[in-house]
Amino acid sequence: MEEFMKKFLIISVLIFSLFFFVSCGGDNDKGDTGADTGDTGSDTGDTTSDTGDTGAADTGDTAADTGDTGSETADTAADTGDTGTSDDDITDTDNTDTTDTTDTDTDDTDTGTTEPGECPVINIGAMKLDASFDNYAYYSGSYQPGTGTATMDEIDFEIYSATTTDVYDLTEGYNASYSSCAQCIIVYEDIVYDNEGYVDSVGKYFYPASGTMTVNSFSYDSGSLNITLDNVKLIQVTREYDSETDRFKSEPVPDGSCLIIQNTTINI
Question: Domain locations in the chain?
């Protein structure tokens, strides 16, 4: 019996040792397997990471391209706006051309040329004092545009007697003729002087047939003169010496030329 128990104990120890050996070897294999599985998990993780990178990069780039396309559309709209502005400029040009084409009213424009029977409008230029005495003052100057030929034209003012600040009719009473006028205007068209400064020849003479002279200020002493001429029409006249008055007299020339001086103020 005792011997049997020894054998049983030995056999039990052997079985227990075998069981322990097998158990330790199995656990180590399972650990290795776990490690291999971990490595596989790590590879899977890397794969997921790569997928993340691809998705983010591609999606972002695509969105940026779309934004660029939108910007190009905005540029196109801006170009369309510029085209609209150009169209407006063309319209304005057309309006100007139309106005110029339809504007055939030449009466409003003084071109310096007139039809037969019309009176050209002249503008008085620079005037100067030539002489001034107790009861006489004489002024001369030029006018534009010139009339007649290219020879010089001249306009003169002659002030006589008790001229004061007042409005004077240039064609009534003593002003009806150049031989008796006190507020006189005389025009010499195509005047030529000799070497000594005397009048050698005149193409035409003009004297007022209508209009007024307003004397704003005047002084025989200083010779200063400020006058306003209003709607003065000058007609062609003769100019001959009158021995009775010791002055020149004027007579209208039938169907002669004429000139117009519109409202203008002269300060000398």
Answer: 123-267
